[in-house]
Amino acid sequence: MHEAVRDWVRYLVDLGVRDWPARPVAEARVVKEEFAGEAVAPSAASVPASSPTTLAQVRADLGDCTRCRLHEGRTHLVFGVGSPEADLMFVGEGPGADEDAQGEPFVGRAGKKLNEMISAIGLRREDVYIANVVKCRPPGNRDPKPDEIATCSKFLESQIAAIRPKVIVTLGSPASKLLLSTSTGITRLRGQWHRLDDVWVRPTFHPAYLLRSYTRQNREAVWEDLQAAKRRLDGEE
Predict the structure, then answer these.
(1) Cα separation of 86 and 64, whole Å?
(2) Domain total for the chain?
(3) Which residue in 19, 44, 117, 224 has a CA-CA distance of 20 to 30 Å to 3?
(4) Beta-carbon neighbour count of residue 3 at 10 Å?
(5) Distance CA 190, CA 202 (A)
(6) Is 223 exposed, middle or buried (0-12, 13-18, 19+ CB in 10 A)?
(7) How far apart are CA 129 and CA 61, in angstroms?
(8) Backbone angles phi, psi at 221, to 5 degrees
């Protein structure tokens, strides 16, 4: 078995997953990430080699999904929004009440804050692509469970494979931990560059957290990450 696949299985077991999705995560190229100047373990959540080639194909593959329990309480499946050719992608955790009602990610208060973040670096919402780890709202906005993440994460991987962004900004711990296959929290992950195959990943605080803890320190941290992402896009970093 490929080392990356073993790492991915080990990661899911650590999360507590015991029931595996019908389609396993595809084997991917092994890469090294950079964290605080040191090489760390390869990310298992790599872009799948056999992924559908367009977002339309990924959406068709997802269908009217009933693969996990989250479909039972949803109003709308929340796939993603933005440019299919975006160089910059934002990945959050999962839909909230407003997103479930409208079928679009990041449209509530956190979404407005994300729009402000995007505008602050000279881009528009339609210039980037926005998605979540899970596509249906967890009840009461709880964290998605490990088996729900394991079932749904392959569609996020396929979205990344279809878009091929240069940079992904992960918003909060769940998205960052998934894409980087780590148990390290967002406070330690943010402020550093990581690699996911040929894509640069920059973790930062979730807009909802920023709204709850709107301190100067947190605002400066997010601004630092956004500026770094823009410099990377412009080939300046």
Answers:
(1) 25
(2) 1
(3) 19
(4) 12
(5) 7
(6) middle
(7) 19
(8) -65, -45
> Which amino acid type is present at position 66?
T
Instruction: State the burial class of residue 194 (Cβ atoms within 10 Å of its Cβ: 0-12, 13-18, 19+).
Output: buried
Across 98-112, b (16+ Cβ under 10 Å) vs e yields: bbbeeebbbbbebbe
- Dihedral angle computed from the Cα positions of residues 70, 71, 77 and 79, in that order, rounded to the nearest 10 degrees: 50
Asked if 169 and 129 touch (Cβ cutoff 8 Å), the reply is no
11: amino acid identity, one letter: Y
User: Which residues neighbour 51 within 8 Å (Cβ) at sequence distance 6 or greater?
Assistant: 26, 58, 157, 158, 161, 162
Q: What is the β-pairing status of strands 88-92 and 167-171?
A: parallel
pLDDT digits 0-9 by tens, 149-177: 999 999 999 999 999 999 999 999 999 99
Are 112 and 56 a contacting pair, CB within 8 Å? no
Distance between CA atoms of residues 51 and 57, nearest Å: 9
Spatial CA neighbour of 175 closest among 127, 207, 215, 216:
207
CA 111, 112, 113, 115 dihedral sign is: positive
3-class DSSP state of 157: helix
Domain of residue 190, CATH code: 3.40.470.10
Range of the domain at 108: 3-233
pLDDT digits (tens, 9 = 90+) for 99-137: 999 999 999 999 999 999 999 999 999 999 999 999 999
- This model's pTM is above 0.85: no
Q: How many residues does the chain have?
A: 237
CB 92 within 8 A of CB 175: yes
